[in-house]
Design brief:
Blueprint lengths: L2 H20 L6 H12 L3 H8 L3 H8 L11 H14 L6 H7 L4 H8 L4 H24 L3 H33 L6 E3 L2 E3 L1 H7 L13 H9 L15 E3 L5 E3 L3 E5 L4 E5 L8 E3 L7 E3 L5 E5 L4 E6 L2 E2 L8 E5 L2
Antiparallel strand pairs: 1-2, 3-4, 5-8, 5-10, 6-7, 6-9, 9-12, 10-11
């Protein structure tokens, strides 16, 4: 084949690729993702280890199934699809934002025959009922973390009350009414006050040395006062990795990439995203009332007012009430 023919083949291949890019639709976008992955020569498991997206989700994307994937909300699926496309070198999100998740999501699912529309509605209804029952039970039944928090708070209050009682009963009483000290003088027992008055050293006109009774009186005149006992309240605790965590506030530490959503009000419909760096103790602003965690296994620990929260690692997503 001549060089002229080679140039014609290359130009034709480039033209076909451009045509394919221009005609991308929600129905063939998954096939395009699979094609780009095959060009990189990587499997779904290898990509999962690099970008931490479940292989079930990646496989569903390549089958043109972008919404209603089991327990994953569309807000996470949109984020995962953008992350996968970015990893494959696709930086144009217009198709993802304007068509896949807004205009043609139901048509894509119906065309792919993965989730019937009736099944979608039933699943959404069941998921909504389960979420509402879980929220109602969490409000009506005290959680283990809440019980532990009130127990620690009650213990701290008892310690403070005990310290105040000890100080008021023993220390202040000792300072106001010192115990009389008994001393011996001339074979008779007298109190400290009497020794100060009756056995006070008198003037010695002959400038002779004081008697033994004068020496005893002078030695017992000095009285030591006990220092008040002050009990310092703890202000922080030590986490399992040796990090000092304050007792007041909300602190979170991540060991792997996780999506952290926040709300400033429980009535707010949408979630904002909170950027949390890895392996760093991060303080959550007190203005937030609700916390949502994606990839729960990536959370090293979460402390609310000094109480470690027990997160359900069996689930991929969980909500935490902050106020």
């Amino acid at each position: 084949m001549t060089s002229l023919e080679n140039n014609k083949v290359e130009n034709l291949s480039t033209l076909e690729d451009q045509t394919e890019l221009q005609t991308l639709t929600p129905e063939n976008f998954g096939t395009y993702l699979k094609q780009k992955r095959n060009e990189k020569g990587e499997s779904l498991e290898e990509i999962n280890k690099k970008i931490h997206i479940n292989t079930r989700v990646l496989k569903a994307f390549e089958q043109n199934h972008f919404t209603n994937i089991e327990d994953f909300d569309n807000v996470y699926l949109r984020m995962y699809l953008k992350k996968y496309a970015d990893y494959l070198g696709i930086d144009d999100y217009s198709l993802i934002d304007k068509q896949i998740f807004e205009d043609t999501a139901k048509q894509v699912n119906r065309a792919a025959k993965l989730v019937p529309e009736a099944g979608i509605e039933a699943k959404r209804s069941a998921s909504s009922s389960l979420r509402n029952s879980h929220l109602n039970s969490s409000f009506n039944t005290p959680s283990r973390a809440r019980k532990l928090f009130f127990l620690v708070l009650s213990l701290l209050i008892l310690i403070v009350i005990g310290a105040v009682v000890v100080k008021s009963v023993f220390v202040d009483n000792q300072l106001s009414n010192p115990t009389p000290v008994v001393v011996e003088s001339n074979n008779a027992q007298v109190t400290q006050e009497q020794s100060n008055q009756e056995l006070a050293p008198t003037a010695n006109p002959n400038n002779t040395e004081g008697t033994a009774s004068d020496t005893t009186t002078a030695s017992t005149a000095e009285e030591t006062v006990a220092e008040p006992v002050v009990v310092a309240e703890p202000t922080e605790l030590i986490a399992e990795d040796g990090t000092a965590v304050p007792l007041k506030g909300v602190y979170i530490k991540l060991s792997a990439d996780s999506w952290i959503g926040v709300k400033t009000s429980s009535s707010q419909s949408s979630w904002g995203e909170l950027k949390v760096p890895l392996d760093t103790l991060f303080e959550v602003d007190t203005k937030y009332t609700d916390l949502r965690i994606g990839n729960v296994k990536g959370v090293k620990y979460l402390y609310i007012n000094g109480v470690k929260q027990e997160l359900p690692t069996a689930r991929n997503i969980t909500n935490v009430k902050l106020k």
